[in-house]
Specification:
Helix content is 21%, strand content 37%. By secondary structure, it is α+β, with helices and mostly antiparallel strands. The protein has one domain: Sandwich (Immunoglobulin-like), CATH 2.60.40. The protein is globular and about 80 Å long.
């Protein structure tokens, strides 16, 4: 049985679609439940980082959201994220000035938190202490603001 050139191209295209379709459909949803939201309200900033963007101050997060901070807890959901290894940084911007406020010594004036509830030691925790694996499908984590 002989196939035309057009039929062969179609078969190759369909085979490629079948092989690559699972890769294209791979996406994760991350739900971050942030607890200990202060009664002051304001905005909650939650950002998702991979290792490269965590360690580079000039890099943007993989994804970020700003939502109203509703006490005692606020939930943020990131959809269609590539599965991988990530860390989360969050803070409650009580005065809604768009930045994480610190005093003249560099001590926090607003509540903050990291994935794995990692605590800072003189500076924010490194990626190794905050990282978690985000598999395909749905995952939920909890962060307690400090």
């Amino acid at each position: 049985m002989r196939h035309t050139v057009g039929e062969n191209k179609l078969r190759i295209f369909l085979a490629a679609v079948l092989v690559l379709a699972p890769l294209a459909a791979s996406a994760a949803t991350l739900t971050v439940q942030v607890e200990n939201i202060d009664q002051k309200g304001g905005d909650l900033h939650v950002a998702l980082y991979d290792e490269a963007s965590w360690t580079n101050d000039d890099a943007k997060p993989v994804a970020d959201m700003v939502v109203p901070a509703v006490p005692p807890e606020t939930t943020v959901t990131f959809k269609n994220v590539a599965p991988g290894v990530y860390g989360v940084k969050s803070y409650q911007d009580a005065n809604r000035n768009g930045k994480f406020d610190q005093d003249w010594l560099g001590l926090p004036l607003e509540r903050y938190g990291f994935s794995n509830d990692a605590r800072p030691i003189l500076s924010e925790p490194g990626f190794a202490r905050t990282k978690f694996t985000l598999p395909d499908g749905e995952t939920a984590i909890v962060i307690h603001l400090q």
